[in-house]
Each structure stands twice: as C-alpha cells, then as structure tokens.
Amino acid sequence: MTTLWVGTYPAAGLGAPVGQGEGVWRLSLEAGRVDNASQLTTQAAPSFVARHPVLPILYVVEEAEPTALSVLAIGADEVSSEVARVELVGAYGCHILVAADASALYVCNYGTGELVALRLTQEGFPLSDHPQQVWPHQGSGPRSDRQESSHAHFACMSPDGAHVLVADLGTDEIRRYRVGEGGLLSDEGIAATLPAGSGPRHMAVRGELLYVVCELDHRLRTLRWDRQSATADVIAEQQTTLAPQRTGDATYDAHIALVAGRNGDVLLLSVRGVDVISVFDVAPEGELTYRCAFDVGYWPRYFAVVDDSVVVAVERGHEVRAYRLDSVLELPPESESGAVATLEYTAVKVISPACVVAT
Hints:
It is a single chain. This protein is mostly beta strands. Among the domains are: 137-149 and 159-239, Beta Barrel (Thrombin, subunit H), CATH 2.40.10; 242-359, no CATH class. The chain contains one helix and 28 strands. The chain has one helix at residues 325-329; strands spanning 2-8, 25-30, 33-39, 48-51, 57-62, 68-73, 84-87, 93-98, 104-109, 115-119, 133-135, 152-157, 163-168, 173-179, 185-193, 200-206, 209-214, 219-226, 231-239, 252-261, 264-272, 276-282, 288-295, 300-306, 309-314, 319-324, 346-349, 353-358. It has a four-stranded antiparallel β-sheet, with no helix packed on it. A four-stranded antiparallel β-sheet has the order 4-5-6-7, with no helix packed on it. A hairpin with a 5-residue loop joins strand 14 and strand 15 (185-193). The radius of gyration is 19 Å and the shape is globular. The chain starts with a strand and ends with a strand.
C-alpha cells in the first residue's frame, strides 16, 4: 500500500477566502484503488505539498497572503502536529521544489512573483525561521487580466542540474538561477523568452529538452537547452489538446509529466475546462505526437504517476481519482478529431484537491 498526501483549497475553490477549514488529507493507494480519505490538518489553503527525498517529512505551502511554509512529520498512520513553520516573503505561494540533495527548497510565489530559497538541516528542517534568499522579479505581459505583473508558477532543475528554472506566467519567461553551495542561488537572468501572452505554467525535462505547458495560449512548447549559454530556444509547439471546452468559462492548462511506456516515453498533460488529460507519444529524439485525450472529471488541477496508477486531483469535482497506468498507456489514437475517451477509475471524496504526492 502507498500513502498519498493531498493539498487542498477551501471548499469554494481557488479565489475563495482561505482558512475556512481546509487542510492536508491522507489517502491510501493499493492495487489501483484510492481509499481511506481523511483530513489530517486544518490550515489556510495548503495547495501544494512536497516530500523530503529520504526522510518522513512533508513540506506544505499555504497559498495565502502572506505565504507560509509548514513542515509536517509524516507516518503511515498519523501526521504529527506541525514541527516547523516559516513565514515567507510575498503572497500566494503555489509550488515547492526540494533540491535532490535536500540542502534547500525553493518556493514560487504566484501572487507577487518571488522565488524564495530556504536552506534545510540534515534532519530536513528549515535552517531558521526566515528564508535565506528572496528573488523578486519585475515585468508583465500583454494579458491585462493575468499578466499585470510577475507570477512565478513552477520551478525545476535545468537539464544539466546547474540551475533552478522558474516558469513565470506573468512575464512569458523562464528565469534562471545558478545553484551554489548549500543550495543557495545566484540570479543569472532569463533562460528563455516565450511568445507574448503564452503564460508558461509547468515544465517537464527529458534529456536536453524542456516541455513547457503554456496556460494562456494553450500551447505545448518544446525547448532545447544549450549547456554552454544556459539558455533554451523553442524548437516546436502544438495545441495542448484537440478536445473541446466542456465546463467552466475558459480553458486552463495545468500540469505535465513524462512516463516511460513499453514502446517509448509518453507525455501526459491535464487541461481544466476541457477536463481531460492529453496523451502525447514521445519519439526517441523528443518529438511529440498527439495521440488522444481521456476524461478525468471536473477541473483536473494536478496529477501524479504513482506505482501503476495515474492519480488525479479533481479540484471542482471534489474527488481524487486513480486510473490504471496500463489503461492510459494502451489508449488508441483518437477515433475522430477532438474525441474524449473514457476509462475505468476508482475515486474518493476530497474537498477541493489541488496537489497529490506519494510516500
């Protein structure tokens, strides 16, 4: 059995007043079935959770103003009371990247655009009660409703492991920070500039390629990383899905992940409003081919590939679903352009799930 930890929004969802009883939930996953959902903490909009790579520690960012980082000691049967807390600079933190060596973690503040760096002790706790570094960013984009300022949305390591890369939805840029001693960073400017109004949101890395899902123009872009200049250039792009709008007022592309399939790698991409996960086949050289899309419920915000399952946080459907990975990988090409496939799944009720991580 695998334990899953789920971050959530208030019951009314993103944008509702925080601190209305939401918290971190725990689920079990066994043989493709999610079960035993229970809420374990009560805290303001704990929308993203990440775990220590070795120790039983969970890091939780509260998407509130001001942003805070909560640290929980976790176990299969219980979650302890909060063991550490750091009040962060900025507002509406939405993503956590934990360094592979656990020397530091990095929080993206969507609301105010900063990247915040916190050093960690060998025991996995923050080194102090305040962040060691705060990296603000200035700029805007042509979309006045979503790009009035910088919006740091997601961080990952560069293909060569030398930099932390930040997708800035507000400025249409991939920002670049060199990693130094103890996980501390130095600002090295912009690694890539994407088309105006594209809104880069999340990224996945494969070899020297970056796959970037752009929320505002609904394009999936492939960028090639150049190690010498530490920059990346767009080499291909395509629609995030061919399926039509089904719920909500617009389309909002969300998360992206790579999976190793029997016949090569597969890229998965969740799209809210269309309410699907799109499936792309990845050629050995990295070229993407759209295969199909399958229904994943009302507003799939985030998903994770865990064991033999694809586990989806279905925010507005107030549930977490689990699909058998084999069933996803074996989906045939769409029968007609824009078709939406259906697959069997198991589900459990969770209020406004926003993120899921396994231990």
